[in-house]
């Protein structure tokens, strides 16, 4: 694929400064791009590479444009503009419509003719698959699932029975939607399974990372609204609800019945306890333990960052005596008050 | 499925207060249940929905019964009673016995005639599969595995060679039992693999969550005793042993050779270091780091809960100076003692 | 398999003290080994079992040799010597060369005749598979992947397009190499996907645990150098680079563009934020949050170990008032200084 720079600028809505006839065939980082490649600057830490880049053109903001020695595409949001340009240069490979010979399809499944069903995939009774859907190799779609148009299951995805996936979703390998939630009642020390009767319901434009799991609801559904993006190895428990355009980084976990608002970002390895509510526009750092509701927009953090082991050991020892310190301090205040005669605060 | 309320009460051992002829066809939450549905109250936070529920009957405790305007099933443990009632109303779908055409079965495998082997599953030499077992689509059972009666592998489960699974177990999609433990010896900076020669051994009534991994033992077996319940994305390392009826929530991890007692609960994302011992009836919060043995029954916690980022930054800065604070405090105590002439404590 | 002890000693380079004619058929722990089995002592905690072991021979260090009542193989590094001996006694089962009937192979794939391609695996266009490679059942290898000689994909492994795996690697079930990195640009509250155009590049002798995920790079590659060992359920984000012979334990996570040096060890559940640099020979405890670069060799830790819940609640309450304590302390110092007339430190 080769695109003229002028055409590219127009397609992505950036202001071109330079020769519109330059042919762009690929993309690269500022440090390593070569002739014919497009680069971008969105993190100012890389600005020093602008002057000597081998790229044929660079996407950047007005503010940085003067540092650049090659053609530029000037825009307010260079990373977004880059995303669009790269999508034009590298369109997702189209899958050939049709059903692979080795796929096993239940008689009552309704599969659009434009859909592509990969080898060794298994599709159950009454499944409905929309136009231009791609079900990659080795996937298992249990009975009564529904997949909206243009959604892509890359490979080895599992949808358990009655899972609903919207349009234009992207499900990465190994992801499992609709396994039973972890519902157990205790009978004198033995666990009795609580049937998990809800579904997983995904809106449109949802992305699910590799080996991520989203459990079906206990009674009502587990819901990921339009535009939710989950990275790899995330666990979403039963009856969680995640609002529009919220993104979570890898290894995060959300316990049962927690509601998360829209336009939130949740850092990697962060865990949320069950039955809490997170408002819209909440941002949580990585590796945090969220133990209560944060209804208000804001930035929240937790955890103790790593340090040299010797310093950490000393800190932990001090923490174990923090209660003693507090008591000593209280006593000291009393004594000093009696010495000075002044009230302490 | 429709069941008369009187019949249901008898089957689950609850006291019926109301018309035994009411037909129950489904279940629902107190807030959303409609006519013909059964609901339950086990968390007192939802008691306020009792008066106006649209359910035809509610399972609840004696104490809450008077608040309810519809028929009730009174019981000591409403959640357990609900679990039983829902299991009667929604029995697990039976799989048709037999072997799918696309399954690949080794000649020496012994598969009970009542078992159901799904499409695109692969079963190795000398595997033994008991009565009424379901091996869902896309599963791989390596050689010499053994699966007890009524166990269900939902889909895309992997059992590595010689894994032993008891009766009535439930293994969710993507789970992997019996992969090599992480055993490495160091040879002057290079890792040399230590053969992992033990097995994974599961008792009866064990549940394994989606994408959970249980490694085979190095020399002896990794053992999950009867009734152990593991949620999704849990890692159990080689030679771990987990006692009867212990449950672990999602994303927990247990390092090698650790022994966990019976009737424990381990919170989500909690990690246990290797070579420690956890007693019976130990309960550990989520996101805790268990760095030493807890042989005694009790409730244990760790981790610093998330807070506003500004407060967290201040706290971390204070923690970095905690040692200085402790030293100042010691000096102050000495000075005050010399001022007052009194011994400090 | 049975090996004479004399032969074994020579093969692993240990000094034999005892009868070279003893036949060794297996291995076992000091506590449980029986006649014909070889055991080893590498952790001094088990030294007390030496005197009464039922093993026919024990691998140990000079220092411990005198405690042992049976034949010994004396060596500087007993665990390493054991690894070698066990590998001789239990060689990995060879897979029969050839392509299973149920495998689906693209016409342009180049597969060495000595390779073994398991049932229900799917291999894409222009894939190149080297000599003695084993692709276990249910694996999916997308187009243009390359797999070096003697590498083994145990079962149900996914390699996304253009992934490069070196020689003698071992990829456990459910692992996913080359899924898209988590690259998103924000367009007024909506996420726009940033195409992930790099690859995953694995050196030789790399081991990848069950259900571990390694994402493809955004522009350049995600790289795991020779001898890297990853345990289960680890997440490696786009453009991470891990140096030779670095090992990571289960459930660790590394965010995007972070570089880790060689010969490091990373504990289980430890998380590294993105865009940082970890030097060579860095060792990080489990469950740590690495929030900044550690360029220097050393031992680093974080996190608050679990304790009794009542003590933890008290500690967290104290921590919430740590700022007040620091302020009180400052005031006290001032007051005591005014009483004593001495400068405080």
UniProtKB/TrEMBL annotation, chains A, B, C:
PROSITE patterns: HEXAPEP_TRANSFERASES (PS00101)
Domain annotation UDP-3-O-[3-hydroxymyristoyl] glucosamine N-acyltransferase non-repeat region: ranges: 22-87
Catalytic activity, as annotated: a UDP-3-O-[(3R)-3-hydroxyacyl]-alpha-D-glucosamine + a (3R)-hydroxyacyl-[ACP] = a UDP-2-N,3-O-bis[(3R)-3-hydroxyacyl]-alpha-D-glucosamine + holo-[ACP] + H(+)
Keyword Hydrolase: no
GO terms, molecular function: N-acyltransferase activity; UDP-3-O-[(3R)-3-hydroxyacyl]-glucosamine N-acyltransferase activity
Xref: InterPro entries: Hexapep, Hexapep_transf_CS, LpxD, Trimer_LpxA-like_sf, UDP_GlcNAc_AcTrfase_non-rep
Keywords carried by this UniProt record: Acyltransferase, Lipid A biosynthesis, Lipid biosynthesis, Lipid metabolism, Repeat, Transferase
GO BP terms: lipid A biosynthetic process
Active site: 238
Annotated EC: 2.3.1.191
Record pathway: Bacterial outer membrane biogenesis; LPS lipid A biosynthesis
Key word Calcium present: no
Family in the record: Belongs to the transferase hexapeptide repeat family. LpxD subfamily.
Subunit structure: Homotrimer.
Function, as annotated: Catalyzes the N-acylation of UDP-3-O-acylglucosamine using 3-hydroxyacyl-ACP as the acyl donor. Is involved in the biosynthesis of lipid A, a phosphorylated glycolipid that anchors the lipopolysaccharide to the outer membrane of the cell.
Protein name: UDP-3-O-acylglucosamine N-acyltransferase
């Amino acid at each position: 694929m080769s695109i003229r720079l002028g055409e590219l600028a127009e397609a992505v809505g950036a202001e071109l400064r330079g020769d519109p006839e330059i042919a762009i065939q690929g993309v690269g980082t500022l440090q390593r791009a070569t002739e014919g490649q497009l680069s971008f600057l969105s993190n100012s830490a890389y600005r020093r590479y602008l002057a000597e880049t081998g790229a044929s053109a660079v996407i950047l903001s007005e503010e940085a444009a003067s540092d650049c020695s090659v053609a530029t595409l000037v825009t307010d949001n260079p990373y977004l503009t880059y995303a669009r340009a790269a999508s034009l240069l590298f369109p997702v490979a189209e899958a050939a419509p049709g059903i692979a010979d080795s796929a096993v399809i239940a008689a009552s499944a309704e599969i659009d003719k434009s859909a592509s069903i990969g080898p060794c995939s298994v599709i159950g009774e009454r499944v409905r698959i929309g136009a231009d859907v791609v079900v990659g190799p080795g996937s298992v779609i249990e009975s009564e699932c529904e997949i909206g148009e243009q959604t892509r299951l890359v490979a080895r995805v599992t949808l358990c029975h009655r899972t609903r996936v919207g349009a234009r979703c992207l499900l990465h390998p190994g992801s499992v939607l609709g396994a039973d939630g972890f519902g157990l009642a205790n009978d004198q020390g033995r666990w009795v399974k609580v049937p998990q009767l809800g579904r997983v319901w995904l809106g449109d434009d949802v992305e699910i990372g590799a080996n991520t799991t989203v459990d079906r609801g206990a009674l009502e559904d587990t819901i990921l609204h339009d535009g939710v993006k989950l990275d790899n190895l995330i666990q979403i428990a039963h009856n969680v609800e995640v609002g529009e355009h919220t993104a979570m980084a890898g290894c995060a976990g959300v316990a049962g019945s927690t509601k998360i608002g829209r336009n939130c970002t949740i850092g990697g390895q962060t865990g949320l306890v069950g039955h809490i509510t997170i408002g819209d526009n909440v941002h949580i750092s990585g590796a945090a333990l969220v133990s209560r509701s944060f209804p208000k927009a804001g930035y929240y953090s937790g955890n103790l960052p790593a340090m040299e082991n010797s310093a950490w050991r000393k800190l932990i020892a001090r923490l174990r005596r923090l209660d003693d310190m507090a008591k000593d301090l209280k006593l000291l205040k009393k004594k000093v008050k009696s010495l000075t005669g002044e009230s302490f605060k």
